[in-house]
Amino acid sequence: xxxxxxxxxxxxxxxxxxFEVLGKRFLFRADPISSYxxxxxxxxxxQLCRRYASEKKSDAGKKGDDGLLDYVGRHMERAEAVRLxxxxxxxxxxxxxxxxxxxDLPEEDSVEYAVFNISHACNMKCDYCSVEQGxxxxxxxxxSKETARKAVDFIIQHYKKEAIxxxxxxxxxxxxxxxxxxxxxxxxxxxxxxxKKASFYLTTNGTLLTEDVVDFLEExxxxxxxxxxxxxxxxxxxxxxxxxxxTFDTIFRNLERIRNTPLSQRTTLRSTYANESSxxxxxxxxxGNLVDAGYGIGFSVEPAMFLPNxxxxxxxxxxxxxxxxxxxxxxxxxxxxxxxxxPIRFFHLCHFLTRMKRKTKFYRDCGCGTSYVVINPxxxxxxxxxxxxxxxxxxxxGFDDSAREWWSARTVEEKSDCSxxxxxxxxxxxxxMEYSPASDCAAFVTSRQFECQMKQHLIKLAIWIISELQRxxxxxxxx
Length: 479
Description:
The chain is of the alpha/beta class. The protein has two domains: 3-97, no CATH class; 110-479, Aldolase class I (TIM Barrel). The protein has helices at 3-10, 40-55, 64-72, 78-93, 145-158, 177-193, 211-219, 232-238, 248-255, 280-292, 324-339, 347-358, 401-408, 416-419, 424-427, 442-478; strands at 16-21, 24-29, 34-38, 113-120, 141-142, 163-170, 197-204, 223-227, 267-273, 298-303, 372-375, 380-382, 391-394, 398-399. Strands 4, 5, 6, 7, 8, 9, 10, 11, 12, 13 and 14 form an eleven-stranded mixed β-sheet that branches.
């Protein structure tokens, strides 16, 4: 047993979290990652432990079991308190250590995922656009084939793994489809010469998915993220062509081209909601129905972020509470799909379910600035496809080692907002760009706070789903 002293020494918000969700009570432990469903007596006992630790901050751990039991004994029978203390400390003592994350700094200057921002231009004008219609504060610009060739050469040179991942972002990358085709064909040829396998990923607004484009994406087995905010009345509110027309009809017609094709099984539909009436549940159900109907393999629904010059569309953290009922209701729908043996599609719940089941600690949530590298139309290297103030070199002179070191040091244990958070090792610290040199502006801070609340609640829902599935398994075994 770890005893009352150690229990109270570690009973802090950074190590333990007591919470209620969907009628159940849980205790989450940050390290090692573990969660426990609590009955009413255990819940009350742990609440008393927290109160005792708070009231006796200076010496709570020094008085051992007797000090705690004397305090708890004022509120419940001492024999019951002794039993609960023994159960809980034994429970903690039998937890195996979690494995360390593999998301660490890669060897030397290697690259594991290269994103080509081939277009600083877009054929749309979304109200909440985070990159100023793809211009990133400058003028419209497309990557030339000459720059693309040098960029591919650079990536192949710095790629140490057997499989090479090429991503395409913008702006809207399909505005520069000729260069995209060149990179794919040249990159695949060069990779084969090096004995490597190339894979390709595209993030698109969906308006330029012509038959020729879809055929090319299918031929080269692209994985795709296509933006669709929800039903027409929600999507067209924010996502418009430059002349103000809504884009839903065009995108939906294009998505019909991939429905029930192999490409659809490598396509994720992504919705973004802004600081407004989010209609979250309506979006979740609509996109879930679309992927069930063969338009994709999964979907995500996320808040608008990365608006360093304008916070109008950023969701303030105090608004998150209004979204909890919608998240909770969809978690119930998600659980029923699991029980019925149906495919589960909502990325964020799948993501945190996987992390909770594996119990692996994540110190970073992506390889931003280290294994993840972005090349812009001029050949400049960036740590993230959101290019705000995150340069790490260029394809002519190579990496800026000091700039990359800054990004590699941004683990959950180094970030002030993350180091004391109970969810840090499951979350991994969230988006690295929200801690970039540009992140001190009010909009980034607000965005980060909202994202933290969202991810913490999704982790709670993942824990609830696991608990419900374990209960059903137990009933099946006992039945």
